[in-house]
Amino acid sequence: MSLKTGSTSQNTQQYDDNTRVPRRTPMACQFCRGRKLKCDGSRPSCANCERRQIACTYQPVNAGQ
After folding, report:
1. Would you say the pTM of this structure is higher than 0.85?
2. Where is the composition biased (Polar residues) (predicted)?
3. Which class for 10: exposed (0-12), middle (13-18), buried (19 or more C-beta within 10 A)?
């Protein structure tokens, strides 16, 4: 077996430049928070609530508690 030492670091650099970091939604709606779903944070209704045709409500969360 032979190991390629130089090529793996070059390939890693290519992937690092092209990877997308998912943006964090500043606030999830109550439905998504309760179900632990990924909320897109759209107003007045997020995609999950719109798909289910339910009321989408946002409640501010105190940071640091």
Report:
1. no
2. 1-16
3. exposed
Decide if 13 is inside a domain. Answer: no
Q: What is d(CA 29, CA 61) in angstroms, rounded to the nearest whole number? A: 11
Domain that holds residue 52: 25-65
Burial class (CB in 10 A: 0-12, 13-18, 19+), 49: buried
CB neighbour class for 29 (10 Å; exposed up to 12, middle 13-18, buried from 19): buried
**In this predicted model, what pLDDT tens digit does every residue of 11-34 receive, in sequence order?**
555 555 567 776 766 789 999 999
CA–CA distances in Å: residue 17 to residues 7, 14, 56, 61: 16, 6, 37, 34
Please name the amino acid found at residue 60.
P
